[in-house]
Amino acid sequence: MNAAQTIACRLLEDDFEDVRADIEQLPDRKCYIRRYDVFVDAEGEPYDQNEHEEVEIFVDEYDAEDGLTMVDAAVAHLTSEGAAHASASHFHPGVWYLSDSRLMNDGTYEESTWHLRGFEESEEAQIFKDITGR
Fold it and tell me: pLDDT per residue over 8-20, tens digit each?
């Protein structure tokens, strides 16, 4: 039985003391990834930037039962969005990720970057390893 099912059963049994304890044990931290698109002219100078809304990364009870972790969800999001490289050759907290440059018809380039927020350092390190293979 997962945490949500346990809470529901205790509510049905009027076991409110245990429900409160179960709710307090549920993870309350939130993890996000924000994407920026940077537009670079033919000389390599940035001339525009588009900031996207943060995307909340989460694992629900069904994903958790299947063994999916926050790291798995973050890596899946990053790779599906096109993140291909890390901003550093070695891991450090705060490393961010970027796409391959995309050449536009007018000779300019577009690059995207993704920035993590709310992840534990060990999760960031595993995300780095999964994305870069290092």
Answer: 555 566 655 554 5
